[in-house]
Amino acid sequence: MATAVFFHAHPDDECILTGGTMAKLAADGHRVVLVTATRGEQGEVAAGFLTEGELLGARRVQELQASAQVLGVSRLEFLGYADSGMMGTETNDALDCFWQADLEEAAQRLAAILEEESASVVVVYDDNGGYGHPDHIQVHRVGVRAAELAGIDSVYEATIDRDRVVRMIQAAGGPIDGAPDIDENSDFGVRATEVTTRIDVSGHVWAKRQAMRCHPSQIPDDVFWLTMPDDQFQMAFSEEQYIHRGVPAGTAESHFDLA
Protein backbone atom coordinates (compact mmCIF):
# COMPACT_ATOMS: atom_id res chain seq x y z
CA MET A 1 0.00 0.00 0.00
CA ALA A 2 1.31 3.44 -0.96
CA THR A 3 0.22 6.91 0.14
CA ALA A 4 -0.74 9.57 -2.40
CA VAL A 5 -1.19 13.16 -1.24
CA PHE A 6 -3.46 15.35 -3.35
CA PHE A 7 -2.91 19.09 -2.84
CA HIS A 8 -5.79 21.30 -3.94
CA ALA A 9 -6.69 24.98 -3.72
CA HIS A 10 -10.36 24.97 -2.66
CA PRO A 11 -13.13 22.58 -1.71
CA ASP A 12 -14.64 21.11 -4.93
CA ASP A 13 -11.35 21.19 -6.87
CA GLU A 14 -10.58 17.70 -5.62
CA CYS A 15 -13.54 16.03 -7.33
CA ILE A 16 -13.49 18.08 -10.54
CA LEU A 17 -9.85 17.47 -11.40
CA THR A 18 -8.80 14.31 -9.60
CA GLY A 19 -11.89 12.66 -8.08
CA GLY A 20 -11.73 9.59 -10.29
CA THR A 21 -8.06 8.98 -9.55
CA MET A 22 -8.58 9.41 -5.83
CA ALA A 23 -11.47 6.94 -5.81
CA LYS A 24 -9.50 4.48 -7.93
CA LEU A 25 -6.45 4.58 -5.67
CA ALA A 26 -8.58 4.20 -2.56
CA ALA A 27 -10.45 1.25 -4.10
CA ASP A 28 -7.09 -0.35 -4.92
CA GLY A 29 -6.12 -0.22 -1.25
CA HIS A 30 -3.84 2.81 -1.27
CA ARG A 31 -3.99 5.59 1.32
CA VAL A 32 -5.35 8.84 -0.11
CA VAL A 33 -4.63 12.09 1.73
CA LEU A 34 -6.25 15.37 0.73
CA VAL A 35 -4.71 18.71 1.66
CA THR A 36 -6.60 21.88 0.74
CA ALA A 37 -4.88 25.26 0.85
CA THR A 38 -8.00 27.32 1.63
CA ARG A 39 -11.62 26.93 2.68
CA GLY A 40 -12.89 28.65 -0.47
CA GLU A 41 -14.32 31.68 1.31
CA GLN A 42 -14.41 33.75 -1.91
CA GLY A 43 -16.52 31.31 -3.90
CA GLU A 44 -19.73 32.46 -5.54
CA VAL A 45 -22.99 31.27 -4.07
CA ALA A 46 -26.61 31.79 -5.08
CA ALA A 47 -28.63 34.33 -3.11
CA GLY A 48 -30.42 32.70 -0.20
CA PHE A 49 -28.32 29.54 -0.27
CA LEU A 50 -26.69 30.16 3.09
CA THR A 51 -28.72 30.41 6.26
CA GLU A 52 -28.64 33.66 8.23
CA GLY A 53 -25.22 34.09 9.81
CA GLU A 54 -23.73 31.08 8.05
CA LEU A 55 -20.25 31.58 6.60
CA LEU A 56 -19.44 30.21 3.16
CA GLY A 57 -16.08 28.86 4.30
CA ALA A 58 -17.73 26.79 7.02
CA ARG A 59 -20.29 25.39 4.57
CA ARG A 60 -17.59 24.47 2.09
CA VAL A 61 -15.64 22.61 4.77
CA GLN A 62 -18.72 20.47 5.41
CA GLU A 63 -19.13 19.88 1.69
CA LEU A 64 -15.50 18.85 1.36
CA GLN A 65 -15.80 16.42 4.25
CA ALA A 66 -18.74 14.74 2.50
CA SER A 67 -16.88 14.62 -0.83
CA ALA A 68 -13.76 13.18 0.82
CA GLN A 69 -15.83 10.38 2.33
CA VAL A 70 -17.28 9.50 -1.08
CA LEU A 71 -13.82 9.42 -2.67
CA GLY A 72 -12.26 7.24 0.02
CA VAL A 73 -9.97 9.87 1.53
CA SER A 74 -8.24 8.64 4.69
CA ARG A 75 -7.06 12.03 5.94
CA LEU A 76 -8.22 15.57 5.23
CA GLU A 77 -6.15 18.63 6.17
CA PHE A 78 -6.30 22.37 5.51
CA LEU A 79 -3.11 24.36 5.05
CA GLY A 80 -4.71 27.36 6.78
CA TYR A 81 -4.72 30.15 4.20
CA ALA A 82 -7.56 32.39 3.05
CA ASP A 83 -9.06 32.13 -0.43
CA SER A 84 -7.44 34.69 -2.77
CA GLY A 85 -10.40 35.04 -5.14
CA MET A 86 -10.11 35.27 -8.90
CA MET A 87 -7.03 36.82 -10.53
CA GLY A 88 -7.10 40.62 -10.55
CA THR A 89 -9.54 41.08 -7.67
CA GLU A 90 -8.73 43.10 -4.56
CA THR A 91 -8.83 39.98 -2.43
CA ASN A 92 -5.53 38.96 -4.07
CA ASP A 93 -3.87 41.60 -1.87
CA ALA A 94 -5.09 40.28 1.50
CA LEU A 95 -2.10 39.48 3.68
CA ASP A 96 -3.55 36.15 4.82
CA CYS A 97 -4.55 34.89 1.38
CA PHE A 98 -2.77 31.98 -0.25
CA TRP A 99 -1.56 34.08 -3.18
CA GLN A 100 0.41 36.25 -0.74
CA ALA A 101 1.78 33.32 1.27
CA ASP A 102 5.52 33.04 1.72
CA LEU A 103 6.56 30.17 -0.55
CA GLU A 104 8.99 28.56 1.87
CA GLU A 105 6.66 28.81 4.85
CA ALA A 106 3.73 27.32 2.94
CA ALA A 107 5.92 24.59 1.47
CA GLN A 108 7.20 23.67 4.93
CA ARG A 109 3.60 23.31 6.19
CA LEU A 110 2.82 20.89 3.37
CA ALA A 111 6.16 19.11 3.58
CA ALA A 112 5.47 18.32 7.25
CA ILE A 113 2.33 16.44 6.21
CA LEU A 114 4.17 14.66 3.39
CA GLU A 115 6.82 13.49 5.83
CA GLU A 116 4.26 12.39 8.43
CA GLU A 117 2.56 10.31 5.77
CA SER A 118 5.74 8.95 4.16
CA ALA A 119 4.06 9.91 0.90
CA SER A 120 5.07 8.16 -2.30
CA VAL A 121 3.30 10.58 -4.65
CA VAL A 122 2.29 14.23 -4.54
CA VAL A 123 -0.35 15.65 -6.88
CA VAL A 124 -0.41 19.39 -7.61
CA TYR A 125 -1.56 21.47 -10.63
CA ASP A 126 0.19 22.47 -13.83
CA ASP A 127 2.15 25.72 -13.73
CA ASN A 128 -0.85 27.81 -14.89
CA GLY A 129 -3.11 26.18 -12.35
CA GLY A 130 -5.34 24.84 -15.09
CA TYR A 131 -6.82 28.21 -15.98
CA GLY A 132 -4.83 30.93 -14.24
CA HIS A 133 -6.48 31.13 -10.82
CA PRO A 134 -3.93 32.58 -8.37
CA ASP A 135 -4.53 29.92 -5.73
CA HIS A 136 -4.12 27.17 -8.33
CA ILE A 137 -0.85 28.65 -9.54
CA GLN A 138 0.30 28.85 -5.93
CA VAL A 139 -0.62 25.19 -5.39
CA HIS A 140 1.82 24.33 -8.18
CA ARG A 141 4.61 26.45 -6.71
CA VAL A 142 4.12 25.40 -3.10
CA GLY A 143 3.48 21.75 -3.93
CA VAL A 144 6.58 21.37 -6.07
CA ARG A 145 8.74 23.00 -3.42
CA ALA A 146 7.20 20.91 -0.62
CA ALA A 147 7.99 17.73 -2.53
CA GLU A 148 11.60 18.87 -2.83
CA LEU A 149 11.78 19.55 0.91
CA ALA A 150 10.28 16.14 1.69
CA GLY A 151 12.50 14.34 -0.82
CA ILE A 152 9.63 13.04 -2.95
CA ASP A 153 10.44 12.47 -6.63
CA SER A 154 7.03 11.35 -7.92
CA VAL A 155 5.16 14.61 -8.52
CA TYR A 156 2.17 14.76 -10.84
CA GLU A 157 0.55 17.94 -12.12
CA ALA A 158 -3.20 17.55 -12.53
CA THR A 159 -4.24 19.18 -15.77
CA ILE A 160 -6.79 19.01 -18.59
CA ASP A 161 -6.10 17.89 -22.15
CA ARG A 162 -7.46 20.91 -24.02
CA ASP A 163 -7.36 19.13 -27.38
CA ARG A 164 -9.49 16.30 -25.99
CA VAL A 165 -12.05 18.79 -24.68
CA VAL A 166 -12.23 20.53 -28.05
CA ARG A 167 -12.79 17.20 -29.81
CA MET A 168 -15.61 16.34 -27.44
CA ILE A 169 -17.25 19.72 -27.98
CA GLN A 170 -17.04 19.24 -31.73
CA ALA A 171 -18.48 15.73 -31.44
CA ALA A 172 -21.38 17.15 -29.45
CA GLY A 173 -22.17 19.51 -32.32
CA GLY A 174 -20.87 22.70 -30.76
CA PRO A 175 -20.55 24.46 -27.41
CA ILE A 176 -22.27 22.83 -24.45
CA ASP A 177 -24.73 25.11 -22.69
CA GLY A 178 -23.12 26.44 -19.51
CA ALA A 179 -19.68 25.06 -20.29
CA PRO A 180 -16.63 27.36 -20.54
CA ASP A 181 -15.69 28.64 -23.99
CA ILE A 182 -12.64 26.56 -24.94
CA ASP A 183 -10.74 26.23 -28.21
CA GLU A 184 -7.29 25.05 -29.23
CA ASN A 185 -5.84 28.52 -28.59
CA SER A 186 -7.24 28.84 -25.07
CA ASP A 187 -4.99 28.97 -22.01
CA PHE A 188 -7.26 26.40 -20.36
CA GLY A 189 -5.35 23.21 -19.57
CA VAL A 190 -2.53 22.07 -21.88
CA ARG A 191 -2.08 20.59 -25.34
CA ALA A 192 -2.35 16.82 -25.70
CA THR A 193 1.38 16.52 -26.37
CA GLU A 194 2.17 17.88 -22.89
CA VAL A 195 0.20 15.18 -21.07
CA THR A 196 2.37 12.28 -19.90
CA THR A 197 -0.08 10.31 -17.78
CA ARG A 198 -3.68 9.36 -18.54
CA ILE A 199 -5.53 7.52 -15.79
CA ASP A 200 -8.52 5.41 -16.84
CA VAL A 201 -11.15 6.18 -14.20
CA SER A 202 -14.13 4.85 -16.14
CA GLY A 203 -14.95 2.52 -13.24
CA HIS A 204 -15.13 5.45 -10.82
CA VAL A 205 -16.91 8.25 -12.70
CA TRP A 206 -20.06 7.83 -10.63
CA ALA A 207 -18.10 8.32 -7.42
CA LYS A 208 -16.70 11.47 -9.04
CA ARG A 209 -20.21 12.66 -9.91
CA GLN A 210 -21.49 11.86 -6.43
CA ALA A 211 -18.59 13.83 -4.96
CA MET A 212 -19.51 16.77 -7.19
CA ARG A 213 -23.03 16.64 -5.77
CA CYS A 214 -21.52 17.06 -2.31
CA HIS A 215 -20.62 20.67 -3.25
CA PRO A 216 -24.01 22.32 -3.90
CA SER A 217 -22.70 25.77 -2.96
CA GLN A 218 -20.40 25.68 -6.01
CA ILE A 219 -21.87 22.91 -8.18
CA PRO A 220 -25.66 23.36 -8.16
CA ASP A 221 -27.92 20.71 -9.64
CA ASP A 222 -28.47 22.75 -12.81
CA VAL A 223 -24.75 23.10 -13.70
CA PHE A 224 -23.83 21.39 -16.99
CA TRP A 225 -21.64 18.75 -15.27
CA LEU A 226 -24.65 17.41 -13.42
CA THR A 227 -27.25 17.82 -16.17
CA MET A 228 -25.21 15.96 -18.81
CA PRO A 229 -26.76 12.63 -19.82
CA ASP A 230 -25.01 9.67 -18.20
CA ASP A 231 -23.36 8.54 -21.43
CA GLN A 232 -21.90 11.99 -22.07
CA PHE A 233 -20.64 12.27 -18.51
CA GLN A 234 -19.05 8.84 -18.75
CA MET A 235 -17.26 9.81 -21.95
CA ALA A 236 -16.14 13.21 -20.69
CA PHE A 237 -14.84 12.11 -17.32
CA SER A 238 -13.60 8.58 -17.94
CA GLU A 239 -10.00 9.82 -18.06
CA GLU A 240 -7.98 12.18 -15.87
CA GLN A 241 -4.77 13.72 -17.16
CA TYR A 242 -1.47 14.58 -15.51
CA ILE A 243 2.01 15.82 -16.29
CA HIS A 244 4.60 13.64 -14.52
CA ARG A 245 7.38 16.03 -13.59
CA GLY A 246 10.77 14.98 -14.91
CA VAL A 247 9.29 12.62 -17.50
CA PRO A 248 9.77 13.58 -21.18
CA ALA A 249 6.82 15.02 -23.09
CA GLY A 250 5.23 12.35 -25.24
CA THR A 251 5.53 9.69 -22.56
CA ALA A 252 2.37 7.57 -22.36
CA GLU A 253 1.87 6.43 -18.77
CA SER A 254 -1.37 4.85 -17.61
CA HIS A 255 -0.78 4.88 -13.86
CA PHE A 256 1.12 6.65 -11.08
CA ASP A 257 4.58 5.51 -10.05
CA LEU A 258 3.77 4.43 -6.48
CA ALA A 259 7.07 2.71 -5.72
Overview of the molecule:
This protein has 259 residues and is α/β, with parallel strands linked by helices. It has one domain (3-244): Rossmann fold, CATH 3.40.50. It is 36% helix and 16% strand. It is built from eight helices and seven strands, in the order βαβαβαβαβαβαααβ. The chain has helices at residues 13-27, 56-71, 103-117, 134-150, 162-171, 205-213, 224-227, 230-237; strands spanning 3-8, 31-38, 75-81, 121-125, 154-159, 197-200, 239-244. The chain has a seven-stranded mixed sheet, with helices on both faces. β1 (3-8), α1 and β2 form a beta-alpha-beta unit. The longest helix is centred in the middle third of the chain and has 17 residues, at 134-150. It is globular.
What's the total helix number?
A: 8
The largest sheet has its strands arranged as 3-2-1-4-5-7-6
Query: Structural class per helix/strand content?
Result: alpha/beta
Instruction: Kindly state the number of beta strands.
Output: 7
The CATH class assignment is Alpha Beta
Strand content: 15-25%
Q: Tell me the Rg in angstroms.
A: 17 Å
Count of domains: 1
Run of helices and strands? EHEHEHEHEHEHHHE
- Give the rounded overall mean pLDDT: 93
- CATH superfamily annotation: LmbE-like
Can you give the helix content as a percent range? Answer: 25-40%
Report the uncertain regions: none
Could you say what the CATH topology is called?
Answer: Rossmann fold
End-to-end span in angstroms? 9 Å
Which second-level CATH architecture applies?
3-Layer(aba) Sandwich
Biggest sheet statistics: 7 strands, mixed
